[in-house]
Amino acid sequence: MSIEQAYNNWASQYDTNKNRTRDLEGKALRATLASIPFETCLEIGAGTGKNTEWLMRKAMLVTAVDLSEEMLKRARKKVNSNKVEFIQADITKDWDFKTQEYDLVSFSLVLEHIENLEHIFKEAAAALKPGGHVYIGELHPFKQYTGTKARFDTEEGRQEVECYTHHISDFSQAAKQCGFKLVDVNEYFDDNNRNDIPRILTLLFQKSST
Ligand SMILES: C[S@@+](CC[C@H](N)C(=O)[O-])C[C@H]1O[C@@H](n2cnc3c(N)ncnc32)[C@H](O)[C@@H]1O
Predict the structure, then answer these.
(1) Pick from 67, 153, 161, 190: most CB atoms within 10 A?
(2) Cα(80) to centroid(ligand 1), Å
(3) 150 has pLDDT over 90
(4) Which intervals hold domain Methyltransferase type (predicted)?
(5) For the chain, how big is the Rg over CA atoms in Å?
(6) Residue 148: predicted pLDDT
(7) Ligand 1: residues whose CB is within 6 Å?
(8) Does residue 175 come out as left (phi exceeding 0), alpha (psi in the -120 to 50 range) or beta?
(9) What's the pLDDT at 157?
(10) d(CA 131, CA 35)
């Protein structure tokens, strides 16, 4: 099943199923970006809008992009503001959905579905103003090494969504090649238990200001 079809199927239960990864990433995004100022945000893989409302409250404008029309349908219902525009698009193609240069490009739980990180960082660099930030909140690769991946249950059985494992160095090297510097890295644990394997990895990169 394609990734687009999988999320179209998952959409009706995405917000209501027990999902520690979804919930912990929401906390991680808020903690990471609380002190970062931005007026314009390009939210990649917005899904059902879990983070869109929070981003919208900080920003003047949010362009929220996703591959799945069914996920976006739910986001449009949840977020009713003329500060947000929702766009259906595939980020593995050219990013012709940009409407301007942004202060922030955010990725929450989407890059595990993308094989080629170089293309993504190249497009993110082109989408950002000088000095702009890239936020990444992902299922931690350590979790992926143990077999955890995006999945949901249906009447026909468990559906797994196509995923790629990116090591921490894969993110940092791809970002470096596109002129970003790493300004923050953090790990989030279930129940804050730091003896456990971390569930969420966050990375914050900044584009050079010249
Ligand atoms: C696990 S959901 C995360 C949604 C939301 N960001 C959150 O944290 O709850 C992953 C999202 O990435 C989107 N996605 C996957 N591949 C994509 C692609 N190639 N282009 C755009 N969006 C994509 C899916 O449609 C899905 O909505």
Answers:
(1) 67
(2) 20
(3) no
(4) 42-136
(5) 16
(6) 81
(7) 3, 7, 22, 25, 45-47, 50, 66-68, 71, 90-92, 108-110, 113, 150
(8) alpha
(9) 84
(10) 15
What does CATH list as the number for 3-202? Answer: 3.40.50.150
CA–centroid distance, residue 14 to ligand 1 (Å):
11
> Would you give the DSSP letter of residue 145?
H
- Residue of the CA atom closest to atom 11 of ligand 1: 45
Q: Pairing between strand 61-66 and 40-44?
A: parallel
Q: For a pLDDT cut of 90, what percent of the chain falls above it?
A: 90
> What does the pLDDT look like over 111-123, one tens digit per residue?
999 999 999 999 9
Q: What is the DSSP string of 31-81?
A: HHHTT---SEEEEET-TTTTTHHHHHHH-SEEEEEES-HHHHHHHHHH---
**How much distance in Å is there from the Cα of 111 to the middle of ligand 1?**
8
Q: Are 138 and 102 in contact (CB under 8 A)?
A: no
Q: What is the CA(181)–ligand 1 centre distance, in A?
A: 25
Query: From CA 129, how far away is CA 199, in angstroms rounded?
Result: 31
Joined tokens for residue 207: 């584009």
